[in-house]
Amino acid sequence: MNRGEARKRAEELVGKMTAQEKASQLRYDAPAIERLGVPAYNWWNEALHGVARAGTATMFPQAIGLAAAFDEDLMEQVGQCIAVEGRAKYNEQSARGDRDIYKGLTFWSPNVNIFRDPRWGRGHETYGEDPTLTSRLAVGFIKGLQGDGEYLQVAACAKHFAVHSGPEALRHGFDAQACPKDLEETYLPAFEACVKEAKVEAVMGAYNRVNGEVCCGSPALQKILREDWGFEGHFVSDCGAVKDFHEHHKVTSRPEESVKLALENGTDVNCGCTYQKILNALEEGILDEKYVTESCVRLFTTRFLLGMFDKTEFDDLNQLDVETEEHLALSEKAAGESIVLLKNTGVLPLDLHGLKTIGVIGPNADSRAALVGNYHGTASRYVTVLEGVQDAAREAGVRVLYSQGCHLFGEMAESLSQGGYVDRLAEAQAVAAHSDAVVLVVGLDETLEGEEGDAGNAYASGDKQDLHLPASQEKLMGTVLGCGKPVIVVNMTGSSVDLSAAQEKAGAILQAWYPGPRGGKALADILFGKRSPSGKLPVTFYRGVEDLPPFTDYSMEGRTYRFYKGEPLYPFGFGLTYGDCQILSANWGKSYPDALHLHITVRNGGRETEDVLQIYVKSEDAACAPENPVLACFKRVRLQQGEIQELDVAVPRRSLTTVDEEGVRAQRGEHFTFYAGFCQPGARSVELGAVAPVRMAAMLS
Length: 701
Hints:
- By secondary structure, the protein is an alpha/beta fold.
- The strands form seven sheets. It has a six-stranded mixed beta sheet with strand order 9-14-13-12-10-11, sandwiched between helices.
- Helix 9 packs across helix 10 (255-264).
């Protein structure tokens, strides 16, 4: 069904409604209108990395882990899987009268905010710090979710529009100041791609203000969204954001005024309770009913596009289509692609036949919470890192010793133990002493980094105050790294943390993110060489926050790999493999209006592996260009040992543009430098073991 037909049907249906009925449909928990055959519908559902909060479903690595795979095709497959399971669950639940929260077809995903500061607790919900990477992955994910059939499979929602990335504790009253250059260059591109390319059906406004205007009542943002980009879907508020207008931002004085501001500026559905005051605003005469009508039409247009009042090709999906073997295999594949090898002195892969005993130590080693991240669903089976190692070792007759080592963040694992972070420490030392190799599993989980109100670190409302691991884990790491045995550090976090001690003393380091329910199996496959690691960092790993701008400063100056002037611990785009992939040659092919083509020959001189080819570009003429080369495009490739492959890579012409202080994007000048390789250009990547990219100068008009 095309949008024109769906809107016409929506207008006809809404035309039969009273003002009270129309107003009721703008709540996220819209009630039934029985006389018109309209069932109740709850707009609130989540699918950040699998159908969430609605029972059993296939769960994937947290979004930041999916980003580390640098795989557009994978993202579309993940979206398609989620759509199938979302439809199946909707069919089963609605058939049994369950139309509760998290049971609908409107999924408030993906989160395409830019992870501009490593302290932000919700950064692991995003696709990282780069607008190009975020855009490409989001477009694939949305296309997978929504499909290309007669009806939408499910409706995706790009959030949180538009300049939103902490601090969590301030979000309800914070005014994010962003200059025109930063808006166009950093904060808006992913949303623009979601709207123009992926045709995302919904957009969610953020809690905060942007340059003085509340995001869920902003004329400036709505102009960009609907007039400049041509967005035709519906707009939803973040939960409680309209209430914030009068309670925290103080841009209105009471709920009725907040209703007026939100509806007149495009917020169609209210996650919260403020739209219960719509009738009051109408009766007072401060709100024109036409705004209520238009929002109602938009919402029913989406419901018709989803086929909620028709028979569709999705009606036969049922519980048997949830957590299928195919879907679980995709989850495990995604986990394998997401894991990043940050250091390897030759310790990895471990040879099971050469070991008698493996020690597994750490608070995240046997943690299910560390597998899933936030906004997660429920898996029918979980494989922790410990279990993955045990399963693999058992087949080879290798014994596995285990110690929790320490509490995730507290001074003791047992409440009656003495303090000082020594509880379980002696046990960890004993495990290490009797092991041929040690896997030390540290990190965080959703109780320490996440959304305000969800994460348990109330002192920071889900954000991190610095990049240190909890003191309990730093003490454990120092102890284990000094044990005299080969140590592989596995870090399970959704953001960068200071791994300087591990970089100095560990034999190998793996960044595992929150890899999903079968993450332990995927990690074991990498530890023991069944597959090569191939993930790349979607964020910069800094050494600390001392040389970063204040958290509340939304200027991009000094932030992310594009503008950072210091030396990172690990650069954006970095990740080692067990292979040895190199560029043999890179030559220009044909030029088209929307893209330039590069012919690249790659060779793998090592073990079979996947790797991610990355193209970066630097404008040499534009004074307004970022200080460092910027990611233009990327391509995941698989190479057998000794294989040579010819690749055709389309470099978007948009990557030749720069943005000036007025926010004008254009190609400025003709001189550009391109870099083609498997890491970001720069001395630090090479110092860490990557092969330097091939540099190419080009003159392009």
